[in-house]
Amino acid sequence: MSSASASPSASSPSPASAWLAHHRRAAGSSLMRCLRRPWATLLTVCVMALALALPMGLSVTLDNLKHFAGSVQQSRQISLFLHPDFSVEQARALQAELQQRADVEHIELRTPEQGLAELRERAGMGAAIDALDDNPLPSVLLLTPAAEADDQALGTALEALPQADLVQHDAQWRQRLDGWLALGTRMVNLLSLLLGIGAALVVGNTVRLDILARREEIGVLQLLGASNGFIRRPFLYLGAWYGLGAGAIALGLWAACVAAIRPPLVALTQSYASPFVFKTLDALHSGFVLLGTTVIGVIGAWLVASHVLRQNRLLEG
After folding, report:
1. Fewest C-beta in 10 Å: which of 57, 81, 137, 201?
2. Where is the ABC3 transporter permease C-terminal domain (predicted)?
3. 64-112 per-position pLDDT tens digit
4. Does residue 10 belong to any structural domain of this protein?
């Protein structure tokens, strides 16, 4: 008698297992609904993918432009051209003297021989250089300011040196470039927000049509006392599948665009003897993209499903 009474309780599922089982059924049924109407699903997913691929591509391109502009230390570098009559030994002495300054982090000396070799290698002017009787290039000191240093004040101090022939420090140009990059970042963020909202609305409209097609089934569940969360769950998974598929297609579109522009870009950078390499999304960032598009799909489905179900209850009441 005791064993008979214990068996039903042992076989009855716990609330947690029943909750997980319903999530599995909701995810599976929503995926099957997507697969049963492939063309409609593909159309919705492709519209979302195009809306998501544009800001993603612009963001990656902007990051590459920042990388192409140079690192922070390189962009702050100051070039001090010495008078041509100063020897390399005098340039080394000045290098050691300037290295003692608190606002200077590092100094690199480029001798006239090194400058001539670099000019011969990069500019392809070997024949013209060989025709020269002597080396016309001066010694150059490349100074990297300290992190807390005032670049403008350091440049002014270098210009006052008697050994200085020219100080090249394009601070104003770099400030303008940073301003344009900041403006581009802000525009990409705003465009991403707008197109993300558009993608969520596409999912929401698709889910709304699916809810309306199952209105009678939903009405029966509501009469049986099912909560809005129980009824809404399959539609949330439907939005998640739409978002995940859109993210995958957006990544594929961006990979195809990168493959198309890579050959001319490589040829262009090689013509400038630049080590720049176009960086695309790695596995980690691609995973974040898929997660973000899935969240967008869930948000769009949740907003529309909650609104429609709330209206349906009000109409029934």
Report:
1. 201
2. 190-312
3. 777 766 544 455 678 888 888 888 888 888 888 888 888 888 888 888 8
4. no
